[in-house]
Structure prediction request, 1209 residues.
Amino acid sequence: MTRLNIEFLINASIESILSNLDTIFENLLQEIKSHLNLDLIFSNVTIIYSEEDKTNYNLKEFFFEIGVRKTQKNNSLTIYISSYYKKFLRLILLREAYKSFIPLGLQGNDIINIFINQKVEIDIQKSEYIEDWKELKRKSVVSYDFMETEFDRLEKFLKQEGGKNKPSPFQFFFSYIKRNIDLIGGIKEEFFSLEKKKGFYDKFFEEYTRKYTEYSDEILETIRVVAKIFFKVKSYRSLLDYQHYFMEYKESGFIQTDLSLRKFTENMQWIKNNTYIAPSYRLNWLALEIVSMLCFMKFNPLIETGTIFNLIKQLPFFTLPTYSKNNFGVEIIGYFICPKVYLKDIIGFLDKFELDGILIDKKVYINNGAVNTINLNYTTSRSIILNPDKKQYKKEYELEFGIKYGDGILKPKLSLLDWLLIDRIRTISITGFGFEMRSETLNSLKSDLLNEIESQHKLIEKVKKNLIKIHHSPDLKRKFLDLIESNQSYGFFYIKQILNDYITVFNVIIKTLVENPSLNNYFQFQEFIKNQGISKTIEDNILLSKLKKNIFKDSISFKFKFKQNLIEKFEVYSYFYNIFKSFNDLKLFDLKSIKSIVKDELLIQKIYQSKEEKLRKSYETYKIYKITNKVIENRLEDFLNNEPPVIQPNLLNTIIIASYLTKFCPILILKDTVQTREGIEKIKPYFPRVIIVEMSDYESHNKYIFLRLLMPNLKINEKQLFYTILYNFFKENIIFSKSFLQSSFTENFSRRDFYDLEREELFYTEDLFKQFYLYAQKTIRKKGNPILESPNKLRGDIWGKKKTILSLINEVENRISRESIDLNISNLEKILDYYKNLDKNISEIERFKDYKDELFFKNYIRAIKFIPSFQSFGFGEYYVYFYPLELEQIDFKHFLHNSFQKIKFSASIDNSSSFFINFIWPYRNPNISLLNWLNKSKKVIREYCLFFIKKVFQIFHFNYNLSVNEWDLDPNRFKIYFQNILFNQDYDVRISELKEFNIGDLNISNYFTPNSPEFAALTQLYNWKSIDLKSYLGTRNYTIINQIIDLLDKKLIFPIFSLKNLDLKEEIYIILPNVKKEHNTTILKIFSFFNVGFIYEIEGEYYIQGFPEEIKFENGLMIKLYLPDCQRDEFEILFNLIFEYLKIGHYVIISDLADGKDFLKSIYGSLDFYKSYNPLKNLIWNNKDKIWMNHKLFTSKFEKIYPSLNIDD
Prediction:
């Protein structure tokens, strides 16, 4: 991509541009085309300067089209520029030139327009009319919502230039649009979609930084030196100051470096221009009477996952949520950062949730201090886990920041400028202050202040506009008051949400009716959406499914006014939503007060006057010219020198490291002891990032430490070893440890909106959590009885003997040394071709020998195993997933008896774990007497799902998700893909034909008996697992070879690959009980997006504590996926949307399943029994009925029976 050169536009006078308008515009288009490497949307674009009056556009609604009128015919576009906006000609021309590369359907999209306008302002920043342009934008675009979404802070990001192998953010933006056109098109332009717009900005920034973050050795050394200087002097004023500090500290020996002053200066300029590193500060919230609390919430598994996610998203003051789902339930860890006056309200809210049975468990910890470490050694090494003892390791590259919150509280008397400063200094350079000249910092703050004042003006205007109509319409007033009255018990937030949902759906319906004018009544419309769908986005369809009955119940009778009736409803509901949105922005949540305001026009006049007076006193009295360097420096010094300090130098939070370094994020909660602190100090150097929070339990006041380790992903056996090391390292000091999913992008937040500038204190209303609790009650609906879990006393049995971190390093390095990752598509196609004819390639021995020597065979095939046709022999392959409440009450030797195959459990340290065990039992006759006893009599099982496999579908293809020799598994592309499958009948889905193995759904009456040669052959090839066929084929072991080929020919075994060198890191299981049969094909298509895995048709039963009884299902699915490093958090959120749309209320996602061999060793004393163990031989053959039978597990007196692990003995 070439560098953009538009000097010919910038330097030309307006008169000169007008005289050469066509040529200049054409040159602009060609320059941009070369810069973006994109084609124009229209084959012919004509620009005409029109001597006419001001265009008819309403400036407040159409700023992004200001000065132009457009006509389109076929593939030609004509743009008329109004002479009224002559002074903005350069800006308008460049804007329209950029937009000529935007797909037509997105040219009205606010997200697109904000980005383009910001780039135009950057490119033509020296225009004599740029400030007039910005003032127009401020008056038309800037609002309270605009400030909330931080769209005013794009400038620094878009100013970055690209490099040799790195596009600029603007170039990347256009390629991002091209790849995600369907998703961006689904982000609506209405006021109720601001969250989606901000979400787009966050995701875009995250993807760009994830792909293009690299530092050279010299840059790393400069970062280390800059951090050391910043921690010492605690401020940044200018590059000149830092040059002076560099020389002074280098001479004194405080800094030891080989960098010269010239190199240091060059590198600081590079850091300023090409990174997001900033001289940031950590805020001591407590000094401002704001409490930071860590909160752990374990939700009742009765509550559907989507409901929990939606609730958490709106929970007041809750930020940085991470989640774990390794069972039917969800666990959330995050922070409440709230004014201290809300502390009791939050605790009371959580207590009610626990009493209601919504939460099984909760813990609240007050944060007392924090330590953040970053190990720059990781950016110079591709090692998964570094060894600090190696010679090349640099101890000085371990950077650390720490803060103690203290006990003192500053009674905060903060100005608007203080809050703007506080919000800026905490973040990365593009949204905060970087290493730029202080004049740029001043300009940013002045812009913030002007935007904030404008947004507050708009807020007051909005309140006026929204209420004036209702005071002049008795009918509207009655309907509004009726709405509140009928939903009073559900609270403010429920009404606001349901109005938002209704207008979202109404908007989609009306758009459909406008585009299809022949739809005149409800029945025609119903038929249309049945055949064509109504929206291409899953969120819209989920909402429509929930609200359809209520939306249409009155419209059915409007045979000839169907469309008009819906439009009228939309207008009324939109208006009501605007009112609730205004009250929400004003922090007025009490429904009684809202009713009084609506009834009494004088009351709202008083509110107007009060707000306007507050605006005049608190906002507009702060004159722009008073913001000087001295003012900023003095305020920062005041914050730094306060006791306790309000801010402390941080900087480390702005160093973005490669995303692969933070894919695995285990969290530990530890007792705060001397041994714990010593242990943390010992393990810190091994991880790229470590976050340590010192905290005290809110109830007991006991001291704890929250430890978050961010590290590269590990294979599951390495994760198991990692947890074994953690357990043996911290022993009884571990309260809890498991991996939680979180976006690598940390969203900015502020508490400025809860500070009353006039009273100079934090704002409080008791209505906030009262109303939110009512909303939560209505949203969740399902309540359960409290569920108690007992502490796990079997940890030592589960996690095995002590290991050192060095053993983990060796294991990882040995694995890497053996790997030969090859994602070259031509080589992958060879293994794919071999797979398609696998049966033939195995059964023809000479053919097999030829392939065995091929490079692709040696590099990709770890083993060739097989799945037996279990039903043909009278067996069923069963799985039992369960979550015990008291692990000590489970006699695992009894539970496993003598027909288990494998036992796995979730790799975590907690009161309990999710267990996943597969058995061989008689076909449709599982041995579940013990499970029933534990569940119904002992009541020690919180949940379970028992099922057998009927069919197996194997996923194996490379149609997509690969770029040049590396994985590119993109959640955005997945969303586009599955939405097309669900809602686009014309979508030609390109999926490879899935191999199908029927192992438990055969129409047969006679089984192969234990005396048959087929059974004898099977027990030779399969005990508790399959042999590796490739170890025998082509050898002289003709007996085994003949057995293999005989069973293959009779379709009694189905060969499958065990693969290697594909860089697949994750293995996840998704259990979907009780799926509608008609959804099977859809789910198969959707999950065929992934490249390697299996989908199983299952039948069985499941139970969650709180159900009146177990639920039996004839059709369900289990999905097993092998994934490369990817944004798994985003994929799991998308999985939830799919299941919510398909009305699969309860499902399990299990990842990080640890092998149970160490646990089995603790149960049986050793693993010697495996040498002769074969569950195929351990069941009882009923010769009369020709079926297999289970062993009894209890005597008539209900005494336990332990069947032999080897019946032959």
